[in-house]
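Hey,
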Amino acid sequence: MSKIFQTSVKENKKAAENHYILTLAPLEKITKPFPGQFFMLSAGHGIDPLLKRPFSMYRRSGKNFQILYRVVGRATAMLKEKSPGDIIKVLGPLGNGFPKLKPRTTPIFVAGGVGVAPLFSLAEEIAGKKPLFFLGARTKKELLCMKELKSIGIKPFVSTDDGTMGKKGFITDVVKGYFTRHSSLLTHHCIYACGPKPMLEELSSLARKFRIDACAAFEENMACGMGACLGCVINTTEGFKRVCKEGPVFPLREIVW
């Protein structure tokens, strides 16, 4: 059950250019978060800024949890300035996480940019399943979790938009190439993804073409995180659904692009 609670900052370290990992220690017992769920964080105090911001759970560490975030605006710039001992008010855990992996199924992870955050916590849990991991970023300086993935025995396929590391171009091009070369071996695979919408739309097309089950954690602007404001709805084959309440994880076959 989600609730509002206070946390103490344990660490706030740089992960890559403009990206940071915030480690939070709840000051009371909370519901155990699962991969794919998220938290709403208050970047400041009182009503400045007015709304909390949504962040996927990146990793659990004992009773603590971590948030991987990119500095893109005022709220995340304020988070960047948090120091050990600072108090942050949090709502969560929220939403529905990734579905359990079916027996004898090989997971394929596809992450774009900071979309690696919810996928890493799942990859860490099922690393023994020898998942394939495709990781894209705009440039080498913004590639995330390379060392962490290596530490759990995963060597990702990498692409960058500018070609500074891995294959030049979009990570979906790398995925498409792999699927084309190994199409006969994809009968017991499933896709877990998170990243920009154009990436997810292309993955949806590839999943249909190669007949692979696929789901993704969607990122939308949210005001409440609990389904009341209807600010994060997306169109699906079953009508409009709230990313915060019915999601953030949806089967890609349900999304109307």
